[in-house]
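Hi R.,

As promised on Friday, here is the backbone we talked about, encoded as structure tokens. Could you run it through your design pipeline when you get a chance and send me back a sequence?
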């Protein structure tokens, strides 16, 4: 038998997810406090438009590299510059709230710079984690993180789990490759 949730409990849970969405200044304070307590902080970033299994597995893997996971999310304007006029599909505030609702994510913050370098420098994470589709020499912030004794980790790539592929399937109305009946 499962317990019923009251509307107050549901509201608290939603509010809890939203409280994990921080400004860069607030995230910097949270990371510093965590590090003072001896916790290892992991940083990753991305667009996270249409959250999919590849994102979830990568975030879970990143979280296992430390005690706290902070996720920086490209703002809508940056996503448009990177991905084209039809993106993002999901507005930034919603993308951040969905990420914040994941148990493996501790803090989420937006960044509007072309790269996350200034955010990485402000937060000074112990670990910088990026998807396996990035080579070490192309990971922005690698040199900085290594210069203060941190490490850079390439996460496993999840074959076929790409937002662009999902968008293309929807646009062409092709059934998903993994669909089962």
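Update: got your reply. Pasting your designed sequence below so it's all in one thread:
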């Amino acid at each position: 038998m499962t317990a019923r949730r009251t509307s107050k409990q549901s509201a608290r849970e939603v509010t809890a997810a939203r409280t994990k969405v921080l400004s860069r200044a607030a995230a910097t304070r949270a990371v510093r406090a965590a590090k003072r307590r001896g916790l290892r902080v992991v940083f990753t970033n991305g667009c996270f438009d249409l959250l999919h299994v590849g994102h979830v597995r990568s975030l879970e893997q990143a979280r296992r590299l430390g005690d706290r996971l902070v996720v920086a999310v490209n703002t809508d304007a940056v996503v448009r510059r990177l991905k084209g006029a039809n993106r993002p599909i999901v507005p930034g505030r919603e993308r951040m709230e969905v990420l914040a609702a994941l148990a493996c994510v501790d803090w989420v913050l937006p960044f509007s710079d072309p790269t996350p370098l200034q955010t990485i420098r402000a937060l000074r994470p112990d670990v910088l984690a990026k998807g396996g589709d990035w080579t070490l020499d192309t990971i922005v912030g690698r040199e900085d993180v290594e210069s203060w004794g941190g490490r850079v980790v390439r996460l496993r790539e999840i074959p076929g789990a790409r937002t662009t592929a999902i968008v293309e399937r929807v646009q062409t109305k092709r059934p998903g490759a993994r669909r089962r009946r």
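One thing I noticed while checking it: The CA atoms of residues 65 and 162 lie 23 Å apart.

Thanks again,
M.
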